[in-house]
Amino acid sequence: MPKEVPGRIDMPRQEPEARKHNFREVATGYTREMAVAEARRCLQCKKPACVAGCPVEIDIPGFIKQIKDGNLPEASRILREKNSLPATCGRVCPQEDQCEKLCVLGRKSEPVAIGRLERYVADWERQNRPVSKMPQHTPSGPRVAVVGSGPAGLTTAGDLAKLGYRVTVFEALHKPGGVLVYGIPEFRLPKAIVQEEVEYIRRLGAEIRTNVIIGRTVTVPELLAGGYGAVFISSGAGLPKFKGIPGEQFNGVASANEFLTRSNLMRAYDFPAYHTPIRVGERVAVIGAGNVAMDSARTALRLGAKEVSIVYRRSRVEMPARVEEIENAEAEGVRMRLLTDPIRINGEDGWVTSMECLRMELGELDDSGRRRPVAIGGSNFEMPVDTVIVAIATGANPLIRRTTPDLECNERGYIIADEKTGRTTKEGVWAGGDIVTGSATVILAMGAGRTAAKDIHDYLSSAGASAADTHHT
Given CB 3.0 to 4.6 Å as the disulfide criterion, which of 2, 305, 321, 451 pairs with 284? Predict the structure, then answer.
């Protein structure tokens, strides 16, 4: 048994020089000894603040104690009580801004590595209790439609299936998983893991239908009229946005959404076994500094780019990406061009050749709480590039709101939903995840899914909703 150690146990990773040339997972996970040593750091607080910081309310000290005691089946059971996607959360959730941020140890030392321990338990479960051997449930209760198979939709579907509801998940693309599949690269979240998490939801009894575009194939009102007692909308915010500067029409300019979707769904990560119609030049500029920008930059490196730069108009302090992702990108050779704002993309014969930029300085705080970038007059310079990936923001696809009367949205096109229940302005319709908040984290979307599932259950359990369901069926 490893001795107790005051410091946080680091997770083994591939060396940067090796990993930037492959799509295998960067972090390789804890060994049993590492996990137990890290679990022994937990103080087992009587009033654990870390649980309050978890959007899905996992019993964090409970599952960590089971790791320390060597009872991984029980640790797995505790995790699954509140989280249907533990292997995903253990890899991509920003624990440093949520549960770990509130860890008591963090006041004087480093917080317990809650996310890494969650991943360890989930990976143990995958190896020793594969989902494929779980019993298949067949719910028989009222019908519920879930729009979108991302983290919010899968969470809602899983929670409602456990309660006995007949859940159908509608996914527009040909593979379920939403942003977990098309948005996050293989080296951060392997597709096989997402497939197992999706299969777990299926085993609970949820049906998943792909290639169904809600608002075109079938509308939300048609679902309500066709036998579904409730509809949960979790279609995400996948509509790409550009800066609106001259030259964005040149070949070689792409949104991060398109770039990552092509790479992920068309298996560019499995080259040369799969040939993907995606072009990556020698000099790539990624505009933006969030997690999506880091994913795009690191993917471009792995697809053969010789030089990749993050171009961001603020400083490092304001970068919205996780610190871990920024550090990984830099270790792999991604260059950070900070306090730099592109104002024009130049090209020849229809293709990108360079980007004109302005140098910036930081002024007063803006509405986001960050210092506002201000252009330095006469600081224009040209940056040679042959590929530009725009990773500044995404928006809400208007298809659902245009085909759903009485569904109120805000000025940005996001659905208005009650934060405590997920209820929208349309009777029988709930919403959660990025379609409500705009681009946010996986775990926040899951939290919204759990909230909506609870309220849908209350709604359908009421006398009026039960009568309505009987009438439909």
Answer: 305
**Percent of the chain surpassing pLDDT 70:** 96
CA 416, CA 426: separation in Å to the nearest integer? Answer: 10
pLDDT band at 272 (very low <50, low <70, confident <90, very high): confident
Do residues 167 and 452 touch, judged by C-beta distance below 8 A? no
Encoding tokens for residue 342? Answer: 């592109």
- At residue 251, the pLDDT reads 97
Burial letters 71-99, b for 16+ CB under 10 A, else e:
ebebbbebbbebbbbbbbbbbbbbbbebb
Per-residue tokens: 460 = 């359908």
Buried-state track 184-196, b at ≥16 Cβ within 10 A, e below 16: bbbbbbbbebbbb
Quote the tokens at residue 313.
Answer: 């108009």
pLDDT of 465 > 60? The answer is no
Q: How far apart are CA 132 and CA 175, in angstroms?
A: 18
The region of weakest confidence among 140-144, 192-196, 240-244, 462-466 is 462-466
Going by their DSSP bridges, the two strands 207-209 and 381-384 should be labelled as unpaired
Rounded Cα–Cα distance for residues 413 and 424 (Å): 14
